[in-house]
Amino acid sequence: MSHRLSVLIGALGIMVSTTSFAQQSVADLSWMTGSWTGRLGPSTIEETWTTPSTNSIQASVRILADGAAIVHEFIVISQKENSLVLSLQQWGPGYVPLGPATTMTLSEMTENSVTFDAQEGAAIKRLTYRRKDEQTFEIAVTTQDAPEILIVLTAST
User: Fold this and answer.
1) Which residues form the domain of 94?
2) Which CATH number covers residue 147?
3) Which residues, other chains included, contact 144 with Cβ-Cβ below 8 Å and sequence gap of 6+?
């Protein structure tokens, strides 16, 4: 009986240490930091991520067409309990909201990628950010109306 108890206690110890190790932190997203530019169809997209601080990281996004900003977006990824939550809001010209704010929950995270899923009914269903290399940042967007759209950005100087 004592051998079984020792095995059970050992197994629980491994589970607890693995669970603690699996907790995600905003600091794990430091690879996102920087300014990135690329194309989104005929438009230019500019995205700037801050350094993680005080349990959050944020981005300012601007989509330009014909010499004018047509979309502004603000993104915040914050720590919530043992996971991460992404919130975003988009505005059109004149800062008119393009819909309600979207909140997404962490679904997967690796050393250089992070994926968030939205609740049912959100316009953006899934967002994945990937740092391919020092110069390349990818965003995979899945919406209600379209399969995955891949946006490739490069480091801005």
Assistant:
1) 25-155
2) 2.40.128.20
3) 122, 123, 125
